[in-house]
Amino acid sequence: MAIMYNGEICVVLDMQHRTPGNLRAFVQASLRSVRSGRSSDVRFSSTEKVDIVPMVTTKMEFSYKDGEDFVFSDPETFETVTLPPELVGDAKNYLVENTPVTVTFVEGKAVSIELPASVVLTVTDAPEGIRGDSANNVQRPVTLETGITIQAPLFIKTGEKIKIDTRTGKYMERA
Length: 175
Prior knowledge:
Blueprint: E1 2-5, E2 8-18, E3 26-33, E4 39-45, E5 51-53, E6 55-66, E7 69-73, E8 80-83, H1 85-88, E9 100-106, E10 109-114, E11 118-125, E12 139-144, E13 149-153, E14 161-165, E15 170-174
Antiparallel strand pairs: 1-2, 1-5, 2-3, 3-4, 6-7, 6-9, 7-8, 9-10, 11-12, 11-14, 12-13, 14-15
């Protein structure tokens, strides 16, 4: 959710409701300013009111990388949005052309992107396994088309497509 705090629009990253022993309840929240991008931890008392700012989520697809920035397009209207690498974060490791993502906007400005639970990527480099190295579930590092290196089973070869869990960054299955 997004709220108005100290005259700035902030996205709530994390929130916990706490009721310590004999004290009054409070809400501990991590906020990130949309304008400056800075994060801060804030404590709200249980009687404080906050103004909620509406958020809009849009399904988009990754189009291409423009220098350092990432360009996403709406598959229905073909409008494009350019996002900086700070906003994309670790999602860049799983972005290939036409990867579907959900982009969240607050007052027309993109504030976050969300990847699907899993993506299919092509293996670009898989070193050969050593003979006799086939004990139960042995894994080795393989490099994917986005440049990320993950652990995968010995039977995965260069050129194969594999499914990766975007939340943990682990190999799931062949695609």
